[in-house]
Amino acid sequence: MASALNDKNVQRAANCFKQALSIPEHLESFVAVRSTYMLSKVLFQLGASDAARSWYEKALKRATDEGEQEYLAKLKLVYALYAEQNDQEVRKSLHILDDMELWTETADLSREIAEYYKNKEDLETAAYYFTHGGFAKYNVLNSALPPLLSFLSLKRA
């Protein structure tokens, strides 16, 4: 039941991204690279490989043209995971996001990748990504703590 519900939500997401990308103003906006990346990703998750590859190519071109290193890494990660099943490339792309200190994105992607491997019953690889996600969450909290403490000390003064 949970999987069917998740598939329904992923399909709904794909439809929303397609609808957004059919709007010329959205397609020409700065968020279009994110929408094309997300559409490619959810289509891969749905098993719609041909459509996913098509949107992947569009997103890759746009990210390259715009110099979007974050989305280049995310796109390569998604393609390596779903199209190539190349865990070495997945880890390489994830570490690029680590180097960029995109901890929230790294935590979310690590959890998704872990679930992917768990569903394939590759528990050793899933454990690696669950652990990596915990490391990223620690960094999210660690990077948020100093500004929070500073804010709280200003409120007391």
UniProtKB/TrEMBL annotation:
The lineage of its organism: Bacteria, Bacillati, Bacillota, Bacilli, Bacillales. This is Tetratricopeptide (TPR) repeat protein.
